[in-house]
Structures are given as C-alpha cells and as structure tokens.
Amino acid sequence: MSAFRAACVQLRSSDDVAENIRIASELIRQARGKGADFIATPENTTLMAPDGGAKLERSFAEDADPALPKFRALAEELGAWLLIGSLAIKTSETRTANRSFLIDARGRIAARYDKVHLFDTDPGKGESYRESNTVAGGSRAVVADTPWGRLGMTICYDLRFPQLYRALAKKGATMLSVPSAFTETTGKAHWHVLLRARAIENGAFVIAPAQGGMHANGRATYGHSLIIAPWGEILAEAGTEPCVIAADIDMSAVEAARTRVPSLGHDRDFTFS
C-alpha cells in the first residue's frame, strides 16, 4: 500500500479530561469521514493542566487511563490507525511520562514512545517551562511498522534535535510524527522552518498535529498543524482553531526525494583536528 490519506486533528485541550476525550473523538470521526486512514492528535491530547502538580493530580497509570480504551475502541470501530500524540501517564507519585500511542485499525497498541527531550526553557515574554520537574524523560527511540511504511515517533521539543530524526530515518522511517503543543512565541519563530527541515534532510513525510489557541491554563499555543512532503512542500496546514486537516500521501515520493538527494547514504564519521 503506497497511497493513503493522513489527517491531523488540531485541539485546544483544557484540564477537563472527559471533555477533551469527547472533543478529540468527535474530530477523529470527522477525519475518518474525510477518508483519512491515519489520524494523528497533538501532544497533551486529553490534558492541558495549569501546572505540573495539577497534571499529576489528573493523570493515571496506563492501565487505568480513561482515554486509552476509548481511543482503542474508536480505532477499531472506524477501521483507522490512530496516533494519540501524547497522554500524561503516571509512572510514580512524582512523575508522569509524556507518552505517544500508535493504535492500529483493530484497536491494538502497535507502539509507545516516551518523549526523550524535555522542555526546560525560558523562551521570552516572561514564559518559563520546566517539564522535567514532573515528567520522566524517555530513553528509547521508536520506529513502528504501519501498512504504508515505517513511522518514526517523536513529540514536540524533540523537533529541535535533528540527530534523533536522522537516526529514525536510518532505521527505516519514511514518515515522522511530531505531535506538539508549541508555544505561540516559539511557534511563530521556528515551527514551519524546523518541520520542513526535518522533512527535507531525511526525505520523509512529516505529520505534525498541534494544540492551538489560548488554553484554560493561560498558555497560548501556536496551532498550524502541518503535513509536509519529503521535498519540503506543505500539503496541508491549519490555522489556530480546533479543526481537521488532511492530505493524500503517495509514499513513492520518499524514494523520489531520496534518489534526487541521497544524503542519507552520504553521512560520514569525522574527527576534530
């Protein structure tokens, strides 16, 4: 299967887990109604809490999370693959994992990825983030098989670490998922250029569903969910409102891009003089 339709669900999640599940499920249904075979949601799909402590209070262990069985059942009902961008999965009394789930069309969990690079930054305008205070970072890169090709799974701040994407591409990834909740400040400056760079330098499709707008916790996210082709063309883009975007994907474009510029085969080891 070399062709399919991919969709990004853009959200504006709050601290109400049940309501977030309802809205996400409704938009996933809309995406399937548009013919999407692969549907991706953003980082923090079911919870954008006021702070790390509030997130811990509203989080669950994986086997008790209320969202996961609902999304698994929805994938099976719709006969579509779902990438749930991330859920806050409680791993201890003081930490959660920022965990992405790939669910196949029979409702089975095909892969999990815990965000490796945690957002500890001061991007300006008085903003300050310390994700590592309450989140345990992952340590494993993940490439998963789908009916259309291999998917390299990442989350948000990972986008700034090109070596991760290079490693995923060298392990066979032809698609890269980047579910995100980029801040408005950093999104305006860097979102488009970073995503297009990851697509171009690796000759891979990039599927990047995002949070967008002003959340109940006072945080503004950038939105602009994107689907990008291996040559760097933007195939679909959202604004800032919750919505669905979709694009037809022809996987032969990966081989075409990698043949035109075969940089994956030109990497060289080097030393400093």
Total helical elements: 6
Please, how many domains?
Answer: 1
In sequence order, what are the helices and strands, one letter per element? EHEHHEEEEEEEHEHEEEEEEH
Shape call: globular
The fraction of residues assigned to DSSP E strands is 25-35%
Distance from first to last alpha carbon: 48 Å
Strand order of the largest sheet: 5-4-3-2-1-16
The CATH fourth-level homologous superfamily: Carbon-nitrogen hydrolase
By CATH, the architecture is named 4-Layer Sandwich
Briefly, what CATH class?
Answer: Alpha Beta
Described by strand count, sense and barrel closure, the largest sheet is:
6 strands, mixed
- What CATH calls the topology is Nitrilase/N-carbamoyl-D-aminoacid amidohydrolase
DSSP summary, beta strand count: 16
Ranges where pLDDT stays below 50 over 5 or more residues in a row are: none
